[in-house]
Write a sequence for this structure.
């Protein structure tokens, strides 16, 4: 059995791992790589003569841990380049992936239209990137998705079975255990996907996995601990009180549309049920978030016990009296003219693209405005620059002074921290575990986590480079 690391190797994004046994080939995740810019991707695709460094038609099955684009975003391209197999995932992952891929396709279409417009105006048209796809490609891919349940073993080939375990990172997110029968021997390998945290709003806790032979483990927070210990309701109430009640201010919350926004809306709903808390208008400004919220509502049976009880008592998990969904771009821009204290939740969470940029641009010079960062922001993104205390920032070509207040809480981070990752690894007996592979993290994060894991007696802890193949 061979395992090759084609993505999220010594970097965070682009999860993609190829597992081969005899003539059967399984791709675990097929994510978009955001660590490369367009020129970098172009050069890579030219070097490997396609979007992928392998022949897609030879892949038999894709196993998808969860819906986020850095895990799912290249699936339409896999079909475009010849893949004819199935994508196996949980039912909520299927629904959320369809939304995210259609959103990506719409973005590609807009960029393609802009390139076509440049050609009509007599300008030289740039080459269309090989990894662009449109909605038709997404629909063709989604026809081949097969939903499975948590905790049940499924046979995907004569000698291969898979079991999905709840990862707690996102609705439907999974750890995947693959069992391969080879040369009269059974080998087990677990792909962690993204590891969640206990007691996260809405989601069930990460499930324990059985003993395996090999473990592929994410390391996003491999050298960090979550700073906030307060309950999400308490942490959010404190920020709102200081930024919108004690002073008549405006609170901007950059948030990922899938997962993070639902946790926020649910927490606000709980907060506003306490009639003593003043009602403040909440604007949810992301059509994708609105669609994703409906998926969460539909799959309420898969949420945690507290959320299910809340829904039974209050009917709606996310809708409350002072919540307004903004669908159109015009409605989004009009919020800038709303002069009462308010909360604006908008994507993206790293303030890199999306409608949130216009809200940050409109409020960055307002000392009565607060921008609340609630999750991880990659180096170089606008969110990262805000968190690092820059006096001025460039937004859409404008250099603007930072007069707004910048705050951060991490109670809504969907990633487990170093302690959570160590707990996940330590489910495995170090005498029985033959190897650990750290992926999906910055290099220093991986190195620090590697050292911590080794302190607990795990000897074979690898940090694979892209394209590295291991014989298991």
């Amino acid at each position: 059995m061979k395992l090759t690391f084609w993505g999220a190797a010594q970097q965070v994004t682009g999860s993609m791992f190829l597992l081969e046994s005899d003539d059967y080939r399984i791709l675990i995740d097929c994510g978009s790589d955001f660590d490369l810019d367009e020129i970098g991707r172009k050069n890579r695709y030219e070097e490997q003569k396609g979007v992928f460094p392998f022949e897609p038609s030879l892949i038999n099955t894709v196993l998808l841990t969860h819906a986020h684009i850095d895990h799912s975003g290249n699936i339409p391209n896999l079909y475009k380049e010849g893949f004819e197999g199935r994508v196996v995932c949980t039912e909520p992952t299927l629904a959320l992936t369809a939304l995210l891929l259609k959103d990506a396709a719409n973005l590609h279409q807009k960029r393609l239209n802009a390139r076509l417009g440049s050609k009509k105006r007599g300008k030289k048209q740039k080459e269309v990137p090989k990894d662009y796809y449109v909605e038709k490609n997404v629909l063709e891919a989604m026809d081949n998705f097969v939903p499975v349940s948590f905790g049940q073993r499924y046979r995907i080939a004569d000698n291969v079975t898979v079991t999905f375990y709840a990862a707690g990172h996102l609705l439907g997110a999974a750890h995947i255990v693959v069992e391969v029968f080879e040369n009269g021997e059974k080998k087990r390998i677990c792909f962690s996907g993204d590891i969640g945290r206990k007691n996260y709003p809405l989601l069930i806790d990460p499930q324990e996995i059985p003993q395996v032979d090999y473990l592929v483990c994410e390391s996003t927070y491999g050298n960090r601990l979550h700073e906030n210990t307060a309950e999400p309701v308490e942490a959010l109430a404190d920020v709102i009180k200081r930024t919108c009640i004690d002073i008549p201010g405006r609170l901007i919350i950059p948030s990922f549309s899938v997962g993070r926004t639902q946790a926020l809306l649910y927490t606000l709903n709980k907060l506003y049920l306490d009639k003593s808390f003043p009602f403040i208008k909440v604007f949810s400004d992301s059509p994708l978030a609105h669609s994703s919220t409906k998926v969460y509502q539909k799959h309420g049976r898969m949420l945690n016990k507290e959320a299910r009880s809340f829904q039974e008592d209050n009917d709606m998990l996310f809708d409350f009296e002072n919540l307004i969904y903004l669908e159109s771009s015009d409605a989004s821009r009009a919020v800038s003219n709303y002069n009462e204290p308010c909360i604006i939740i908008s994507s993206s969470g790293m303030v890199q693209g999306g409608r949130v940029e216009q809200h940050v641009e409109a409020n960055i010079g307002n000392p009565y405005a607060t921008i609340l960062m609630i999750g991880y922001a990659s180096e170089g993104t606008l969110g990262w620059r805000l968190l690092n205390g820059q006096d001025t920032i460039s937004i859409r070509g404008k250099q603007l002074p930072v007069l707004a207040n910048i705050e951060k809480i991490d109670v809504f981070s969907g990633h487990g921290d170093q302690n959570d990752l160590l707990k996940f690894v330590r489910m495995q007996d170090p005498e029985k575990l033959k190897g650990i592979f750290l992926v999906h993290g910055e290099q220093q994060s991986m190195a620090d986590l590697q050292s911590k894991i080794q302190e607990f007696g795990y000897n074979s802890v690898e940090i694979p480079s892209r394209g590295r193949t291991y014989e298991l």
Observations:
- The CA atoms of residues 3 and 470 lie 5 Å apart.
- The longest helix spans residues 91-120.
- The radius of gyration is 22 Å.
